[in-house]
Design brief:
The structure is a single chain. The chain is α+β, with helices and mostly antiparallel strands. The protein has 5 helices and 6 strands. The chain has a domain of about 110 residues: Aspartate Aminotransferase, domain 1 (Alpha-Beta Complex), CATH 3.90.1150.30.
Length: about 160
């Protein structure tokens, strides 16, 4: 098998794949040629291109897909996945927004992983509100002003 030519995005691709594989239960999955995807419980959470090709990534972004689609090079994922919040991005040059793509992988993992594995993670980044503990009191609504009896209101008119 001939060796693939390297692409300027290969280092970024390797970094993103290693980042995704660090999650509990994460593994690679290759459902068809030209992909080496990240999955948890056999559910894909990131579709990634192969080394030697321009970097391509698709993630399920239930909270941030609308914002992600504003990024140049991003579009709804093909095969109807875009309707479910999946976003695809491609990068040909060496300038890859690694931090943004890691946040996408995190959000996608949290959307696809089973609850038992999510319990092993630290709370998500500020995209999701922190869980409210039972000891945190709820804010009380201000008490309504007492009204005068009906007769007293009628007499004052």
């Amino acid at each position: 098998m001939p060796r693939r030519k390297s692409a300027p995005t290969d280092a970024a691709l390797r970094e993103l794949r290693a980042f995704g594989l660090a999650y509990p239960g994460a593994h690679t999955k290759s459902p068809w040629p030209g992909h080496l995807d990240l999955a948890v419980d056999d559910k894909t959470f990131a579709y990634l291109s192969l080394e030697g090709e321009p970097l391509g990534i698709s993630c399920k972004l239930p909270q941030s897909s609308a914002m992600a689609l504003l990024v140049p090079g991003c579009e709804p994922a093909a095969y109807g996945l875009g309707k479910s919040g999946w976003v695809r991005a491609t990068f040909a040059g060496p300038d890859v927004p690694i931090a943004m793509l890691k946040a996408w992988i995190d959000e996608s993992y949290r959307a696809q992983a089973p609850k038992k594995l999510l319990k092993l993670l630290t709370p998500a980044a500020p995209t999701t509100p922190p869980p409210r503990s039972r000891s945190t009191p709820r804010a009380k609504a201000p008490a309504p002003k007492p009204r005068a009896p009906r007769r007293a209101r009628a007499a004052s008119r």
